[in-house]
Amino acid sequence: MTAPVVVADVVRSGFVEGHHYGSVVALGPDGALLWSVGDVTSPMFPRSCNKPFQAVGMLRCGLDLPPELLALAAASHSGEDFQIEGVRRILAGAGLDESALQTPPDLPVEDWMREEAVRAGTERSPILMNCSGKHAAMLATAIVNGWDIATYRDPDHPVQQAIRGAIEDLTDEPVQAVAVDGCGAPLLSMSLTGLARGFHRLALARPGSNEHRMASAYREFPEYASGSRRDEARLLRALPGAIGKAGAEACYAVALADGRSVALKIDDGGTRARPVVMAEALRRLGVDHPVLDDIGTVVLLGGGQPVGQISPTL
Q: Is pTM beyond 0.90 here?
């Protein structure tokens, strides 16, 4: 396994006090490798970056959702009211309620929403867990096909087997490792290059295809795919035709309208470096837009005042 490399410096008062290590890969409009740093060929867990691939697997099994709910089915949502109501809509369309969800009880994943929930005395619940949209879609897919819903998280369940087929198809790689994701659903491995390849294929998918439906949902409803205040949504709103998804352990994949794509992983899982490195990778691909300064700026404070920043080193 190739070692990750320094992809960002922690600079305080002009002094480099630390580093973030990681790996990044970029593909061109034709899907060919443009450049890479670190390890981009060994198996890794993409965490929630694989959600659009999972949704494609469900669409192939007959799942039928309007685009905003399809984006939510492939989301790590912030727990905002419109998202929770959307999860309930997915469940209701399948004749279910939130008691069918097997996501672990949680509070909203986004800090500001979590703080609001704590102030309001909100209890942890499965529907507030950020993967509840995906789980609702898995249940709906099982209902459409007459499959058992009690075991929908089992790796051998038909829903999970369909998802595995879609992942191997879109990444053009065999799954080499299977784990349990934070939400309890199966987590399948791929390389960073395979992850970028999958997003490249979604971005250029034929109109009318399941892959195109998934990409269009992200493009039209980025707030459903992440949250109204998330850097992912800001990026997709600013770059017409782009699709993107971040995941735990600082994974992130973005594809532009012409198929250029980037996938990255920060080795320490530190989320602060994730958007910084993505912004710089997109600059290297020729993207010139103020949103990159927005999402790619992480300021360090000293005495309550800005004294440094996370600086990309690509």
A: yes
Cα dist. 45→179, 281, 287 in Å? 9, 21, 27
**C-alpha span between 7 and 169 (Å, rounded):** 30
| pLDDT tens column, 21-78 | 999 999 999 999 999 999 999 999 999 999 999 999 999 999 999 999 999 999 999 9
Structural contact between residues 230 and 78, judged by C-beta atoms closer than 8 angstroms: yes
Question: Does the domain at residues 5-312 carry the CATH identifier 1.10.287?
Answer: no
Q: How far is CA 15 from the centre of its chain?
A: 33
Cα separation, 278 vs 8, whole angstroms: 11
